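Now for a typical sample entry:
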Amino acid sequence: MAGNLFRSEEMSLVQLYIPLEIAQPTVSELGELGHVEFRDLNPNVNAFQRAFVNEIRRLDEMERKLRFLEGQIHKAEVPVRSMDSSLYYGRSRTQQEIDELEERLNDHDARVQQMNTSLETLNKRYLELTELRHVLRETAIFFDEANTRTDDILGGTHREDTHLLAPGGTLEQPDDNEAVERGEGALRSANLGFVAGVIPRGRMGTFERILFRALRGNLYMNYAEIDEPIVDPITDEVVQKNVFIIFAHGAQLLAKIKKICESMGATVYPVDERSEKRRNDAQEVLGRLEDLKHVLDSTRNQRRIELAKVAENLESWSTVVKKEKAIYHTMNQFNYDQNRKALIAEGWCPTLSINAIQYALRGVTERTGATVPPILNEMRTVLEPPTFHRTNKFTVGFQEIVDAYGVAAYREVNPGLFTVITFPFLFAVMFGDFGHGIFVTAFATWMVSQEKKLEKKRWGEIWSTFFGGRYIILLMGIFSIYTGLIYNDIFSKAMNLFGSGWEFHKHGEKWYGEKKWTYVFGVDPAWHGSDNVLLFTNSYKMKMAIIFGVMHMSFGICLNVCNFIYFNKRLNIYTDFLPQIIFLLSIFGYLVILIIYKWATYWPDASLAPGLLNTLIYMFLSPGNIGQKDLLYKGQAGLQGFLLFVAFVCVPWMLFAKPYFLKKEHEKRGGLGYAGLSDENLNDPTAAGFTSGPGDNRPSEDGASSGAGHVEVASSGHEHFDFGEIMIHQMIHTIEFCLGAISNTASYLRLWALSLAHAQLSEVLWTMIMGNVLLMEGAVLPIALVCGFAMWFVLTVGILLVMEGLSAFLHALRLHWVEFQNKFYAGSGQKFQPFAFQTILADTEE
C-alpha cells in the first residue's frame, strides 16, 4: 500500500478491437471490472450524430417511465423491495431482454396512466357531488332564514333600483313550511333570482367587495363555512371552502354575478327554488356519492396492486437501464472500422490491471461463443496519463483531503501517504485534551464498528461527511488522547498519575515550588493551578509549534529530491533543493537548535535566560554583535554571522543558477544541432511517438498510425527558449520561497494559539458551571449536579468538540495545503476516472 500511495500507479494506454456483435457485452464486462478510462475518439462529432444515439434515446424514455412509476410508488407510499447488492454486478442483458423490459414498462406505464386519469375524473366528480351536497344543505337553511327577511326585501315599491340590503323591521316567525312557501312565493313575486355555489375561503373577502362594487349594493348575500375538509383532485391538497347564495333583481345582474364567480374561481351549482325538488336532489346526490365512493375505492385498490407489482422489480429495472445507458454512452466514444466490422476503443488503465482486463475479455468470448475475440494492444505514447492511487476505506479519506487541493501529477510524490499521520497529529496538537479525545474516539469507534449498517443510512450531507471521514476522526481522537496526556489535561484538570516532581514551601503568603525530579510523562501536574501556568504553557507550546513547523517544512523540501531523481531532473537538486534547505535551516533550523539548547540548559534564575526572539531579531539587525545578556554559548556571534551570510548567498544561488545552466545547455544543444529536442524528449524513450504491440504500428509519414485508432504523437517543431521568461519565473519562485519561509514558519504558531484557546475555553466551562455546582450544599446539590452536568456536557460537545474541532480541522488543513504541500507538490494532474458501474450507480443514488 505504501508503494501505491507514495506514487500513483503506472498507467498504460491500451487499444481495443471489439467485434461489433459482442461490443455490448464486452463493454458491460469492462464496466463491471471498472479498470479502464476510455478516451473520446470522436471529440468533434455532435452528441446527436453519434452511432448509438437512437439506443440512448430509447433508454432515456425507459428511464423517464421508471422515474414516473417511482414517483407514483412513493406518492402512494408503497414499499419498494431493496435489491441485493450482488445483483448490481450481474451479467449484461441481451437485446431481447431489453425489448421485453421495454414492453413491460410500456404496459405498466399505460395502465398506471389510465388509472390515474380515471381516478382524476372520479375525484373531480366526487368533489362536485360533495360540494353540491353542501350547497343543497346550506341553501335549504338560507331559504329557511329568507322568510324572516321577506318583509325587508318587499318593503320597497318593487322598483328595479330598490336597495336589497336596506334595513327592515322585525318580522314574526311563522310555521316553517308556511314560511318557506311564503318566502319562495315572495321572491318569485318580487322577480328575484339567486346564484348558489362554492368558493375557496381565502377569496371570500375579495369576492364580497367585488360583488358589492360591481352591483352597487343591489344584492343580498349569505354564506356558510364547510366544516368537512375538501381535497383538490389535481393537487391532492386540502382546501377550505365556503357555500354562498346571492339574491339579486333581473337576469342581467344574475349574469354579471356568474361572470364574477367564474373569474374568482368559484363553482356555481344549479339549485331549484322549490323545497320539494331540493330535497329530492339532495337524496339523489347522497345515493350517487355512495356509489361513486365504492368505484373510487375499487380503482385505488387496483392501482395500488399495480404499483406493488412494479415496486417488486423497480430497483433491478432501474439498475439495468442505467447500466445499458452507460454502455451506449461509452460506445459512442469508439471508432467504427468498416473493413473489420469492429469498434476501436482507446483508454487508460493501470498496468497491473492489464491481465485482469484480458481475462475479462476471454470470459466474454467464451460466454457469448464469438468466433472473433476482442483484441487488446498496449501502446506507447507521449500523452500524460491520468493519476490513480489505489486506496481502501481507511486511506481514501486522507487521499481526498489531498485531492481537494489538487490531483497529483502522474507519478509525482503523493502527500496522502504522510497525511495519514501528520494531519491527525497536527490536529491533536491544537485540540489536545484527554477527555475530549475520549469522546471523539468513542464516536469514531461507533461509526467504524457499525459501518456496514450506517453506510445505508441517508441522514443528510453533514452525516455523510462525518461518516466518510470516520477513520480520520478516529485517528484525530487517538492522537488527541496522546497529546492530552502530554499536556496532562483532562477537561482542563490535571492527572497526578506518577506523583509531582515539585515540593512546595511557604514563604510569607505564597507557596514556592522546588523541583526534585522530572515528571515521568508529560507536563507535571504541579503547573496546573499555579500563578505562572500561562507563562509556562505559552512558552512551551509556542516553541513546540516552531519546532514542528520547521520539521514539517523541511520534510516537504526534502521530498523534492524524490521527484527530481524520478523525473531525471538532477540539475534541480543543486539549483533548487540545496539553496532552499540551506536557507531554511540556516535561519529557522538554527532557531530550533537554540530552543532545544535552552531547554536542555539549567538556568539558576530563569528570568536571566536570554530571549530567543530578541536573539533572532538582532541576528539580522546587528550581525556579529551580541550583548552579554543575550549570550547563550561561546562563539555565538561568529556562528550567527556565518549562518546569515550563508542564507544571503542562497538567494542569488536560487535566482541565477538554474537560468544560467538552462541557457548553457540550450546553447550546447543548438551547437550540436539538437535544438528541436526538449528536456523531456531527451530523457523519454517514447518521445518519437512510436507505438508497440502486436505488429509494428509505427506512425506513417503523414503522422497517422497504421491502425485505425487515434494515437497522438509528439510534434516535431522546435522548442521555444526564452531566457527572459525563465529568469522572471525563477525570480518569482525565489521571492515566493524566501518570504514564504518566514510567513509559513509564523503560520505554524496557530498550533500554539489554538491549543491555548482550547485549554482556556475548557477551563472556563468547567469553572463557570461545574465549579459553581460543586460549591453548593444541602438538598439542592443533587438537582444542581444533574442540571449542571447536563449543561456542561451539551456546551462541551457543541462548543469544544464540534466548533473547536472544526476550527482545528480547518487550520490543520491549511497547514498541509499551504505550508507543507507547496514545498514540493504541483497538484496539476488529472484524476483517473474509469468506466465503472459501481461509481455510476452510486452517483445516481445520491
In short: The domain at 132-295 is CATH 3.30.70.2750 (Alpha-Beta Plaits). Residues 153-180, 675-718 have pLDDT under 50 and may be disordered. Residues 223 and 244 are 4 Å apart (CA to CA).
